[in-house]
Amino acid sequence: NAEYMGISRLFDMGCSDNQCCAAFGSIGVKSFSDVRHRIFTGTMILSCCALIFAIASACAITKSEDPVWNVAWSKMSYSFASNTTNVDVELRLGLKAAVISVDGSKTFIEYGSRECDSSYCDHCKDATKGCVTAVILGIITLAFSMKAQYTRGFKADTNFQKITGMLSGVCAFVSLLSSLAAFQKQCIDHVSHTVTIGDQTADVTFKVGPGFALMFTACVVKGFVAVAHILVPVSAVPSALKTSLRTQV
Length: 249
Known about the structure:
Elements: H1 2-17, H2 19-25, H3 30-34, H4 36-58, H5 65-70, E1 74-82, E2 85-93, E3 97-102, E4 105-110, H6 119-154, H7 159-189, E5 194-197, E6 200-203, E7 205-208, H8 210-231, H9 239-248
Helix pairs in contact: 1-9, 2-7, 4-6, 4-8, 6-7, 7-8
């Protein structure tokens, strides 16, 4: 930890004297610098919510029935007639498995298993390989970006902290967005919107799952936080702070 703090101070010191860093740090609305405490308090609250949402959404990675059912990323439903009665089928897709409910009776199906022989299995299995990695990376960068927000709002506001805050926000945004896009493309767009059962053809209704909605919300929040870092210019760094940074490295 001490080594990390030393490296951080070194970069802070380097950026405080670098013209490119200073030029980037000065970008923004000057009046926002005076209320940076309020702005970054707000972004930290939003980031905490986004982190909770992302972790909850990531529970769809587990290979367990209840989490997949409760935080599924997508819902598919259709009905067909059987012995003069209608049978309601609902399929909820997670990141590594799905749960199918037939008139309330649930069955857990893992992607790639012999029990999963429908088209969505192959598509979702391919999509989730990169999707899971993107989700985990997004959560890590979400947590990391909160440090920069705290530092800029309540400690020394430096060019380096603005750059790291903006970059971590962008990385989190891109990672989460790529996971959503991959899932949408492979697990929803490539799946047939009709199901044939015997001589019957049923239309499949797709709905956004709670897991997808939570991750999308977290993604939007991180995009907002990255913009906030850009719009808030760096406060003037006192010469005493520069001297302190140099002596502490």
